Amino acid sequence: TTDHGYDVSSEIISLGIEKDFDDCMYKSKEVFDLIQPRMPEQAQYVVNFAYKYPYFMRLNLREATHLIELRTVPQGHPDYRKVGQTMFKAIKKVHPNLSQIIKFVDLKQYELERLESEKRIEEKRKKL
Question: Rounded to two decimals, what is the model's pTM?
């Protein structure tokens, strides 16, 4: 659904293509609204991934640890990183002792998250 709006990333804004992005998002919503009344299941496939959607997860500590450690790595998507960091802080607030199991959470903020990873890949290519 397109009911919850969408986010515009800072990269889109800095590139100066925010209007093009907004136009694309509007078209996605327009097509969704056209298809949804008669074919609700099929309509979901035209919704752009930038649209927000609510969801509910039920996890045990092992599953939460895996998700948090996987999604808070420096090269992770900023939105996933933020969710993982928020989850960790919520667990730590309620269960400070159990939160110590989550050892590889990264709570730092990064600009150009993948830059260092891409630099290492380029160095490896040069050595070949």
Answer: 0.68
CB 69 within 8 A of CB 105: yes
The mean pLDDT value for 15-31 works out to: 95
**Gap between the Cα atoms of 43 and 41, Å rounded:** 6
Instruction: Map residue 76 onto helix, strand or coil.
Output: coil
| Rg over CA atoms, the chain | 19
CA angle centred on 63, ends 93 and 78, rounded to 5°: 70
In one letter, which amino acid is 120?
Answer: R
Integer Cα distance of 80 and 11 in angstroms: 16
Closest-CA residue to 11 (of 116, 112, 119, 108): 112
